Amino acid sequence: MTGADVLLLALGAVAVGAGALVVGTRHLVRAGLWLVVCLGALAGDYLVLTAELVAWVQVLIYVGAVVVLLLFAVMLTRAPIGPSDDLDRPGWPAALVGGGSGLGLAVLLVDAFHWSRVDLPVAGTADRLGEQVFRSWVLPFEVLSVLLLAALVGAIVLSRPEIGRPGARSAGTPAGPGRPVGPRSDADPVRPAPAVAVGEEGA
Amino acid sequence: MRPVIPYVTAALLFGLGGYGVLRRRNAVLVLMAVELMLNAVNLILVTADTTVQLPHSGQVFALFVIVLAAAEIGVGLAIVLQLYRLRASVTVDDVPLDRPEGER
Questions:
Q1: Angle at which helices B58-87 and A138-159 cross, to 10°
Q2: How many interchain CB pairs under 8 A, A with B?
Q3: Which of residues 5-64 of B touch A (CB under 8 A)?
Q4: What is the topology classification, in CATH, of domain B4-87?
Q5: Are A54 and B15 in contact (CB < 8 Å)?
Q6: Can you tell me where the transmembrane regions are (chain B) (predicted)?
């Protein structure tokens, strides 16, 4: 057991424990915060495994962007603050599939690697990664940027359903004072945002 | 470094993610469990990069998976929020088709 092993064990225990809390807690917001702990422990794992750039990308994109997006979604769907009782379905099929796949993979990997030892490569450089990205994997890299653009446009179109409909010129201000009257505002099922609708009911 | 430690960590995280995807009813929590599974795959890739010394492509694949996860979470949350606008509910196993919009 070297120092790297001890670090990997500790960070792995933190990651698995936090992951169990993500899928087990009854508080929606706390699930997102435990996800931060889990992803941070995994970033530490990457650092120990001498993948520094991946570790910092993990911190920036996952902890910085993805979790914030998820927490925004939790708030926008008006999640209750306290514990919720209706978050879970009956557990045994999920436990069967999840436990089966997790333990099966663990047994497979233990059988493949036993307690063998590997020397870590030299730390502190992203040379290998840069060489790989810009030599062997240039085309997938560029295709990935196109995919990101497509996903961005797709998300925008999804969240603005009035895009692409005939006569949707003044659609920039939904439920505002310039809201178009006529058959569209009645027939359009997507138009009223929930917050506006509830506010009108209360008034 | 014993490669078995991060490998087993990744396997257990993948199991937890699969359990969460099947167990949770809230769509946002399902997306969080999907993130757990993707991170387990990333850990496998990075560990394979340091363990199998030859081509060193594991870290590149891990970066690609991170980018794909970012795209997935963007589109997935757009779908979830649109469902919430339409049906005022984000449960994945029971979508209230008869409920008036904007009401809880």
A1: 10
A2: 294
A3: 5-26, 28-29, 31-33, 35-36, 39, 42-43, 46-47, 49-51, 53, 55-57, 59-60, 62-64
A4: Helix Hairpins (1.10.287)
A5: no
A6: 6-22, 29-48, 60-81
Residue A102 to residue B12, Cβ atoms within 8 A: yes
Structure tokens that stand for B60 in this block: 């590149």
Residue of B57, B73, B85 with shortest CB distance to A69:
B73
Q: What are phi and psi of A42, to 5 degrees?
A: -65, -35
Nearest CA distance, A193 vs chain B (angstrom): 6
Q: What is the ipTM of this complex?
A: 0.90
The residue ranges of every structural domain in chain A are 3-85+108-162+189-202
Q: What is the CATH number of domain A3-85+108-162+189-202?
A: 1.20.120.1200
| pLDDT by 10s per residue, chain A, length 203 | 788 999 999 999 999 999 999 999 999 999 999 999 999 999 999 999 999 999 999 999 999 999 999 999 999 988 887 888 888 888 899 999 999 999 999 999 999 988 888 888 887 778 888 888 898 899 999 999 999 999 999 999 988 877 767 665 554 444 444 444 444 444 444 444 444 444 444 33
Domain ranges of chain B: 4-87
Burial class (CB in 10 A: 0-12, 13-18, 19+), A95: middle
Structural contact between residues B73 and A69, judged by C-beta atoms closer than 8 angstroms:
yes
Residue corresponding to tokens 């240039």: A138
